[in-house]
Amino acid sequence: MLDELEQSGLGWFWASDARGHLTYLSGAIAARLDLPLPDLLGQPLISIFVAADREGRGKSLPLMLGTHKAFSGLAVRAARRPDGAVLRLSGQPVTTEAGEFCGFRGTGVDITNEYTREEETARLARYDSLTGLSNRHRMAHLLETTLTAFKAARRNCAVMMIDLDRFKHVNDTLGHAAGDELLKQVAGRLTRAIDRDAEIGRLGGDEFQVILPDIDDRGVLGELAGKVITMLRQPYSLADGRCVIGASVGIAIAPHDGVSSDDIVRAADLALYAAKNGGRAQYRFFSGELENETIFRRRLEQDLGTALRDEQLFLRFEPIVAAEAGTVCGLEAHVCWNHETRGVIDEQEFAQIVEGSALLGDVGRWAMMAACKRAADWPESVRVAVNVPVALFLADDFVTLVGDAIDTAGISPSRLALEISEAVFFGDASVVDRTLAALFKLGVRLTLDEFGSGYSSLAYLRRAPFDAIKIDQKLVAEAERHDGRDMGLVRAIVALAGALQMDTIASGIESASLLASLKACGVHYVEGPIFSEPVDTETLDREMAGGSWRIEPGTSRTRRARRRTLLRKIQVIHDDYAYMVTLRNLSKTGALIQGLADVPKGTQFVVDLGGGQLAVATVTRSNGDVQGVEFEQSLIEDGSGGLCTRNRVSPYALSAAGAPLAALAPGKFLGMPLGGAVPKFGYAQPVRTEAV
């Protein structure tokens, strides 16, 4: 009966001696494990079987055998077949009449199918079914346990929040199946980009999270975030077509930006929100200023409807100059906002506010009508260029809008140049082609904007009757810095445009050397601070009074520095005494401070830039109450055009000095107590001092 039972597979048996060596095993078990029975008999049981649970959460076979007590429900696999059948073992200790332990007798059941189903269910509860990455629940658990352990060990941990740009557009135009395939490819690229110890997860939709233990160097984190952004914006090949998206990244670091998982996730989310508002395709580190900045920006977005209704928007125009003649042949329209409480919001900040807003299309409609109306007052030889948002281009009434704007203003259609980004080609091909054909028939000029931004395709040039190519401003900037391969790309674009009988435009030009290089490449039209910043209508009317406008490039014209850290109060520390000074200027290698008198060259300061950012600096020049200092370690880019230190003073160090860790609010820095030191330098003017 036992033989028949074993052969049927309904019951299998095994036995071991007192040393734990296998003395008996049903042949059916050996066959199921695909191992020769003679090779198993006489071997230690713990060398034959291992726990099936890869994460080690189940019962331990050595522990069960070592206690000499009965056990059941132990899931095991053959050590030599780690991906083979799964058995559930049960065992009963056997003793002599004298009570001496002499081994185990037990049974086994094949539970491979049941175990596989349970394992898959458990996996789905912890991992994203689409991408295979950790899901929101597992990432939250990992972050919570990691930060709890790291707090006790006083270790750092960084968190990146990653959100895809323009993903919704892919979903809407190519379908959800294409969106799912895109997310899979994004997950693969993220795994390759994060080439260090880290946990990557998909929180849902197009939002991803990365947990990076034992790192607080913002230089390394910035490089990693830049690598992620670069890899994710490369073209994707899908079954339904080719597409390009982008990514924005927010970064927070424990314990600097918070101690608990809730604090860190919230800080990283705020940084991500700031990155998206800053123009997308960039990264931001969390700072204490971001919360107020976020609240303020949301209020501005809410006020945008009022701005349209109450005619608070106005245009400035940037001259487009013929490279050889130096005459203004076109003017690019930029939208600005005269906010009732904030004042004038310039074109750069306004573009960041309106990006992603539900009113982007309405702003584009207003700009089209207003730009054409202004162009009616200019000489016939001067065109007006209007940037067209993707949402507006794909709208059903876009061609009608353009025609109405031209007719209402009474200008020739050829005087209107529509700047269209490559992103419009990711939409429905039939809609895009129909719109382009209608615009061509209407007679307006078409300019392909941001060409050379990393995903340009000749297919766009074949599909659309473009009159001009506008070279991507970032490519032009790189050409100025390196003047090698990037300038070669500019020459290639100019040659391509020439072969297709298209004009070329380069923007953002600041230096005479770059202007000369672009002229040598054969670029037809140029614009940038070297000629003029965008001007208001009064200036424009004055310059156009003679019927034409000629601009000589000026070496003194440079773009305004857009830094958030200039002209603010900071502290510098010398000999354990803190002085309050004004930070007038800041660069990667040094700063200009004002407020102290009689400071000799060679004096060393510790410059407190806030948020735990301390930089050792030496005075290299001193003139009255102004000192130039050089940093011992260069600052790094913070992802938003500003600068920051690589590392910050750890709150753990401050806690050891007497400041309670719980009192350290995210982004704030409670300085070390300085005691009763005596000041060495005097203030050049009355300055309110504060304890560090």
User: Mind describing the biggest β-sheet?
Assistant: 8 strands, mixed, barrel
* CATH architecture descriptor text of the largest domain: Alpha-Beta Barrel
The strand order across the widest sheet is 14-15-17-18-19-20-21-22
Distance between the termini: 87 Å
Shape: globular
β-strand number = 32
Number of helices: 23
- How big a fraction of the residues is strand? 25-35%
Walk me through the topology.
Elements: H1 2-8, E1 12-16, E2 22-25, H2 27-33, H3 37-40, H4 45-48, E3 49-51, H5 61-66, E4 71-78, E5 87-95, E6 101-110, H6 112-126, H7 136-153, E7 157-165, H8 167-174, H9 176-193, E8 199-204, E9 207-213, H10 218-232, E10 236-238, E11 241-243, E12 246-254, H11 261-277, E13 283-285, H12 290-309, E14 313-322, E15 328-339, E16 343-345, H13 347-354, H14 360-375, E17 383-388, H15 390-393, H16 398-409, E18 416-421, H17 429-442, E19 445-451, H18 458-463, E20 468-471, H19 473-482, H20 485-499, E21 503-506, H21 512-521, E22 525-526, H22 537-543, E23 568-574, E24 577-586, E25 590-594, E26 596-597, E27 604-610, E28 613-623, E29 626-631, E30 636-637, E31 643-644, H23 651-656, E32 682-683
Parallel strand pairs: 12-13, 15-17, 17-18, 18-19, 19-20, 20-21, 21-22
Antiparallel strand pairs: 1-2, 1-6, 3-4, 4-5, 5-6, 7-9, 7-12, 8-9, 10-11, 14-15, 14-22, 15-16, 23-24, 23-27, 24-25, 25-29, 26-32, 27-28, 28-29, 30-31
Helix pairs in contact: 8-9, 9-10, 11-12, 14-16, 16-17, 19-20
